[in-house]
Amino acid sequence: HWECIQDTNCTDPDRPGKWQCPHHRCMACEKTAAAAGGLLFRCRGCANAFCEDHLPETHLIVGKCPRLEPLGFRHPPQACYIHCDSFCA
What we know:
By secondary structure, the protein is mainly beta. The chain is built from 1 helix and 4 strands, in the order H-E-E-E-E.
């Protein structure tokens, strides 16, 4: 949703001028899942994603994202869903 991502930096650093979903790079260091050891922690409540090194202390691991499954979204093996803080829960 545009309202969810308008305040985030959603350009792909590897392809200037191209949009990229913020759930595909750590918001702190911009590592992809492959560069971060194979896993990113994606927040279910906002557009933030984190590598293990930058996972917020306030996070809560929730595993999958059931609201996306009815839309045909398959849970990727390189993602674990979290709530990054109590605001997102």
